[in-house]
Amino acid sequence: MDSAGNVIGVFGGSGLYRLLDEVEEVRIDTPYGSPSAPVRIGEIDGTRVAFMPRHGDGHDLPPHRVNYRANLWAMREAGVTRVIGPSACGSLKRDLAPGTFLVADQFVDRTHGRPDTYFDGPETTHVSAADPYCPSLRETLLGVARELEIPAVDGGTVVVIQGPRFSTRAESRWFSGLGWDVVNMTQYPEAWLARELELCYANVSLVTDYDVGLEDDPAVEPVSAEAAFRVFSENLDRLRALLFRAVPRIGPQPDDICAKARASAVVL
User: Fold this and answer.
1) Rounded to 10 degrees, what is the CA torsion of 231, 237, 239, 244?
2) Which stretches of the chain are DSSP H helices?
3) Is there a catalytic annotation at residue 60?
4) What is the spatial distance between Cα 193 and Cα 68, in angstroms, rounded to a whole number?
5) Residue in 60, 95, 181, 211 annotated catalytic
6) Is residue 1 part of a domain?
C-alpha cells in the first residue's frame, strides 16, 4: 500500500465507532489475521487520518479478544507512523473525577495470554519499555486540551487488566494503594505493539467512573458498564474536538525514541 505522506492513526475505543464522515474503506490482510475492522482513511484539515474501532464496528470484540497485533500492523500498512489511542478508564484516585482526561506516560500490564510481541524468534529482540508513550504526541494533546479548556492530567499510570470483568474491591484497592492512577482493559498490548513497530503512540484516557475500590464514599456511583458508557457518551463531543484540533498539528514522525526503538534491541 502507498505509505507516502503523513498519516495519523486513531483507534476508536468504547463508544467511538466513527470519527470521519467521508472515508475510503481499506481492507488489509496481515500475517497475524484479520484486524478488528477495515481501516477508514479520510482527512482532517488536510491531514490524512486512518481510523479503526478497536472493538469492531459492532463492539463485538471484548478487550481480551481484540487482535492488537493485526490492528497495529494494518495501521502501519496504511502508512501510519503516529497513533492516538483514546480509551475509557476507571479512576483509582478521588481527585481524578469522571469527565477528566488523563494523557498517560506509563502503563502496568496485568493481562495474561494476549499475544503481545512481533518477535517470537528465531531472532531475539528486547525493545526498551522504560518510556512507552511518545513524548511529543503527549505534548500536542495536552496543549490542545488546555486551549479547549478540557481538564486533562499530564502523565499518570494506567494499569491494564484482562477483562472483560471489572476489578474486585480488593484488586482495586491494591491498584490504588500502589499509586496507580486509572484502570483500563485495552492499553496493553496496543501501546506496546506500536513501539515494537517503531510507531509513535499516545493515549488519552477518559475517566468514566470511580473504580470499585473508592466506593466506600456513598456519593460515588457503583461502577457498571451502563454508567461508564453514559459518561463516555456525555464527553464524546469533547474527545472529538480534541482529536480534530490535535490531528492537523501532528507532523511527520521525528527521529525520536519511538522511531529508533529497535536500534539497539536485537541480540546478535
Assistant:
1) 170
2) 68-77, 135-147, 169-177, 187-196, 225-234, 236-246
3) no
4) 8
5) 211
6) no
* Active-site residue flag, 216: no
The number of folded domains in the chain is: 1
CB of 125 within 8 A of CB of 119?
Answer: yes
- Given the residues 95, 209, 216, 255, select the one marked as catalytic: 209
- CA separation for the pair 152, 207 (Å, rounded): 10
Pairing state of beta strands 39-44 and 24-26? antiparallel
Please indicate, yes or no, if residue 241 is contained in any of the structural domains: yes
Residue 125 belongs to domain with CATH number: 3.40.50.1580
Question: What is the tens place of the pLDDT at every residue in 113-150?
Answer: 999 999 998 878 899 999 999 999 999 999 999 999 99
- For the stretch 69-103, pLDDT in tens is 999 999 999 999 999 999 999 999 999 999 999 99
Q: Is position 122 within any domain?
A: yes
Indicate whether 2 belongs to any domain.
no
Whole domain around residue 155: which residue ranges?
A: 7-267
In tens, the pLDDT along 18-76 reads 677 788 999 999 999 999 999 999 999 999 999 999 999 888 899 999 999 999 999 99
